[in-house]
Every structure is written in C-alpha cells, then in structure tokens.
Amino acid sequence: MCNRRTTSRQVFAPILMVAASALILAACGRDTETKESPPRPVRTTTIEKRESLVPLTFTGRVEAEDEVSVAFRISGRLLANDIKVGDRVEAGQLLAELEPQNELSGLRQAKAALSAAQGQLTQARNHYERQETLLAQGWTTRANFEAATQARQTAQSQVEAAEAQLSSAHDLVSFTELRADAAGKIIATGPPAGEVVQAGQMIARIARQDGRDAVFDIPAQMVRSAPAGVQVTVSLTDDPNVTAQGRIRQIAAQADAVTRTFEVKVGLTDPPAAMRLGATVNGRVEINSGPTIDIPATALTRINQQPAVWILDPSTNVVAARNVEILRFDQAQVTVSQGLDAGEIIVTAGVQALHPGQRVRVLGSEP
Q1: Which domains does the chain have, with CATH numbers?
Q2: pTM of the model
C-alpha cells in the first residue's frame, strides 16, 4: 500500500514542476512584452477657457410701434362704414358716421333755449335800467331796484347755461362723425354699417406710421438671460436677405396665460419697405454665456456609459480617463460644462486605442 502511494507521488511530481515552470515563464514573458512595447503615438491639446456667444433665433411678426383703436364717444346706429383693412388714412379723414337725427334735434332745442334766454335777458336789462333811472329821480323804491337787479343777474345766468347746452349739442353732433387722429394704415375693422354700436366700441384700429416693431414670444429663461439694450438682427422668413437692426424696447410684465411666454417688442431702425405690417420675421441675437471650454469632437470617448476624455500627465506621459458633462456639441466641436480645467492636456487623436495608465508619445515630440 505504501509503495503504491510513493510511486504515484514520484510520477506526478515532475509533471507539476514542469507546469509551474511554464506558468512562471509565460508571466515573465508578458511582463517583458509590456515593458518593452513602445508608447502609443497621440495628438494632444491644452485646455483654454474662452468667452462664448450663444446664438438664439425666434420667429415673430411685424407690428406698428404705435397702434390706436378709434371708437365713437356716443352710442348709435352706424350710417356709413366704408373702411377696409389695408386702407391708408390721413389725419382728420372721415372713417364712419352715426345717424345724427337725435343729436340734430338736441342741437335745435339748444338753439331755441338760448334764443329764449337771450330775450329774457334783454327784458331784464331794460327793466333794470328803468328802475335805476327812477331810483335816481326818487320815483321808485330801493326794493324795486334790487328786484330788477336780481332779475337781470338771473337772466344772464340762464343765457350762459343755454350757451353751454348749445356747445354740448354741437359736440354731440360732431361725435356722430369718426375721424382719424393721425395718418396710418387700417389693420382691423369693427361692425359694418347698419349695426347699433355702443360708446367706446372699436370701429377701426389704425397702425400709425411713426415706427415698426418686431414682436416675439420668448420663454422666461431667455428673457432673464438677455442683457438690456441687446441688438437684434431681424430678417424676413421668406427672404432672409431683407434685414433690419433693432433693440429690445419693451418686455411684457406678465407671461401669457396659455403659452407662459413673454411678449418682447424690438424697435426696428429704418426697416425696409418689404417688412410690411403682419410679415413673419426671424430675430437673431447672440448672448454671452460666460467662459466655456471647447474641445475637438475627436477628443470625446465613452467610459462607464458616460462621455469622457483622456487626460495626459506631461511629467510621465501617462493617460487617465475622466468623465465630463457636455453643454452642447456639433460635428466638429464639443462644449464642456464640467470636468475640465484650463491648462490641462487632453488627447485629441488616438483616443479609441488607449487604456488607463498607458504611456503615450505626443506626435512631434521626442519619445
């Protein structure tokens, strides 16, 4: 029994020694191969921070800088309303009329009342003058004279009241005519002729000719980031070659209840004639987003399912992976928001063949 065990050990011992020797030699060979492999050539760049201008584009419309809605001051039935959208009007031009029968009747009554008051004033003055003469001669009493004085003053007041009523009647007649208060273009109209309208009801909306605005609906975060007085380039949507410059002159104090955007008005400087009222335009503005880091798109790789770059240690020429956060990117350039600092060196070519701790050789320098 003991002889068999001894024989087995004697047989397997040399085999185990040979296998162990082979493993040791293989490991040594790998270490030798790793140590002797040349550094991988790469290209690098040094990180710099630069001020970044972010272009923003919005679509809006052209409106008059000053619009006014015109309406009658009194209620009545429309007798004539021939204005149309797009018509040009001049200051003082007749736009619409109301039926004036009631107002003309009131005017006639006011004239009659003034004539009656003037007749009474004439009679009261004559009586006053007679009483004044008789009092001086001693043929009347002072009580009669004072009564004549009071009657004259009352008649004078009645004449003044009648004159005021006549002036008011003239105004009411003039209110039956609606005239433009400034030159411009009709951009909206109200009820047609024949309808009964109320005082203050819009009959026409006039865009005055003293300026134009480009109006945009802007999200709240963009409104907060836009500096005051920023210059905006406005161009026609259907013809980008037609452009005008402008500056933000008004921002709505309250957001729209439905869209939650703010209405922003851009005052246009010398807009071309092609930018007609109601035209669709694009507004472009560049906003400074602060210092940013831009790197070539070729430097970006993916490690741990996240964007990353290879950082080069210039003292040892060894690379290490680092995850970064991307702000925006295109085919040629990537803007990094976090993960890199100015002065660091990153690999821009050969990133796909690297692994952590690998020694590299920067092309154009000594190995």
Answers
A1: 40-50+291-362 (2.40.420.20), 57-66+210-289 (2.40.30.170), 71-99+176-209 (2.40.50.100), 100-175 (1.10.287)
A2: 0.53
